[in-house]
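May I ask for an example protein's residues together with how it folds?

___
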Amino acid sequence: MKEKPTPLNEYKSLLPYFARYFWHYFWGLICLVAVDAAQIIIPQLIRRAVDMISSGVFEWKEIVLLAVWMVVIMGLISLGRFLWRYFIHGSSRRIETELREKLFDHLQTLSWDFYQKNKIGDLMARSINDLNAVRMAIGMGLVALVDFVVMASAILIIMFVQDSRSALFSVAPLPLVTALILFFGGMVGRKFRNAQETYSRMSDTVQETFAGIRVIKSFVKEWWFIKKFADTNDDYLKANMELVRLFGFFFPFVTFLSELTVLIMLVIGGMRVITGLMSPGSLVALFRYLQMLIWPLMGAGFTVNMIQRGAVSLNRVNEILRTVPSIRDPEKPRTAQPESSALPALEIRDLGFSYNEEGPALEAVNFSLKRGEWLGIMGRTGSGKSTLIKTFTRTLDPPAGTVLVFGLDVREWPLAELRKLFAVSPQDSYLFSDSIQGNIAYGKDLGDSEDLRKAIGLASLEKDLAAFNQGRETLIGERGLTLSGGQKQRVAIARALIMESEFLILDDSLSAVDAETERNILEGLLRERKRERPRTTIIVSHRVSTLRYADKVLVLEKGRIAEFGSPAGLAAAGGFYARTAALQRLGESPAANAPGAAAFRGEARHG
């Protein structure tokens, strides 16, 4: 995603949230202004007390009464601070939560190509760090802004009304502070964007390292990833140190200018007290007001910082929210009933597909499958096998009219309904950090049901589960790190089988399974999905022993159909399928060539 300059009008996207929490912000701002007003009253009480004492003519009860009023006002200030924090900070937290949920929900709708272009670490940084910055801008940033406008304005008015000459000299350095704030804000925005982008790269490095830790250790490449992380970590340090240097100059300089106003007031105000043009109490009150001005001035710096950071982060979040899925539901969706359809279950008509301008990944692919038929797909690496099956579910969007499911173009199906028809077990079996049962029952809330046990049996997992101390409740770790390759594939197969979908696609998902287990799985599938309840099955494999169970075999070569027919017919044709079969027979054990095994394969082939 290309980054663009971030105008403050990014905050317009938050208007619906501000409207929803209008009364929370309204009462929060009322409490905040009330607190500021109460704080401004206290110096006036101090002024009266000092003037009484300095005059030498006063009664103690008057001083005590002023002290009681100050205590009461301070109590109200404490209550008001609690209320504005509850209303304003509470609302900013709720908006952050809703934005994070909206972002996560939107990410679920984005198509496969989006995740090919964007790294997970960057998406995580936008979902966490950037939303934190947005929350600070619409929470504490708003508080600092109101404090600056209300308190600073009120204090300056009171000071000029009380003694305009002293106030004029004292606030003379303040325009320089304003100019510095305006200049500082633009620099913060640019440097914070750089810091966030650097954080995204570092987060991506960490995510990639932990996800591939087993491969890293097997190749003894820990040192390389340690160096890679150290480099990105140093870049993040440098980006943040640039911000630190800015703040290191800005805040001390603002403090210096603020204290300079106190020095000017001490000189000018002191001379006016000596000459009798100002009372001692007024001078003390003006000192108090000048000290109270420090926070609004510092708050202005915080405001610029947080609003600029929030705008940058909100732009990064909105870039994702503005991304339209490349594959969407049709405007007028239609569905077909598999049971009542007399048309082919799956029909491919002159399908062509290209990822880029380098050449087609698929070209002029034509075939059809009846309900209950088994299709085997074979081909060299890069021949278009995975691309082909991704068009069935619109993971990749095929041209209109080229892929039909039960006589209806896949582009006319609602995405959810279309994808429910297909249960896919991919070669790269992704498992979640959950129990084995949780992974198998991922698509259905089954508990300890008969369907769950049947899926485990069809995937030949019973013996494996018996070897685990906790059986089906065994936690398998992230991405199934505690399982072997074959076990992960069979858990993924069971997860697909339990859906009982019209189409089952095994995308080379038996590649890590031994021959005997493979035979048991395919025999069970043959009985379940062909004889008892006919449903269509598509098997992608490089093994001829697997494809012999299919009714038809499709051989792809550079995106085109090189061979298509029954396993027996292709074996006699002398093409790629026959040559592969001959090579694989050389590696088969004597048991695989036994008469009983051949008879079983023949029975399976003819159904």
Remarks:
- The chain has three domains: 19-321, 344-421+505-607, 427-500.
- Residues 222-274 form the longest helix (53 residues).
- The chain has 22 helices and ten strands.
- The beta strands are 346-353, 362-369, 374-379, 403-405, 408-409, 422-425, 503-507, 536-540, 552-557, 560-565.
